[in-house]
Write a structure and sequence with these properties.
Elements lengths: L1 E5 L6 E5 L2 H25 L2 H10 L1 E3 L9 H9 L3 E3 L6 H11 L1 H10 L2
Parallel strand pairs: 3-4
Antiparallel strand pairs: 1-2
Length: 114
């Protein structure tokens, strides 16, 4: 694939070719950290919520959820079904909008988190 941007040394526009295996190698460690973070959260999840997570699975949100097969990677590592939200990169903004529109309903949850 071609990547276009500014060369940090020369300060000029530049196009480079990046092979898939180079991208895979570059993101392996961050992906391991994501998987470990998910596993840690699942280990800390109260038993009454764990059964819901096992039954219904996890929904992945944020731009990282667009990484091909990340749902399968996390599902294989945790044993929990994973699904990618529709337009995952917009979920935080949409959720914040819903919370702001319904501030009174969410007030107790927001204050309890402090």
């Amino acid at each position: 694939m071609e990547i276009r941007g500014r060369d940090l040394v020369q300060g000029l526009p530049k196009t480079i070719r990046v092979r898939t295996n180079e991208v895979v190698e570059a993101i392996q460690e961050p992906l391991r950290e994501v998987v470990q973070a998910v596993r840690s959260v699942l280990q800390e999840t109260p038993p009454e919520l764990s059964s819901d997570v096992i039954d219904k699975g996890m929904v992945l949100t944020g731009g990282g959820a667009n990484l091909r097969n990340i749902d399968r990677l996390i599902s294989q590592a945790t044993g929990v079904p994973c699904y990618v939200a529709d337009r995952p990169e917009l979920c935080v903004a949409k959720g914040t909008g819903v919370a702001l529109e319904n501030l009174e309903a969410y007030k107790r949850s927001i204050l309890a988190a402090k």
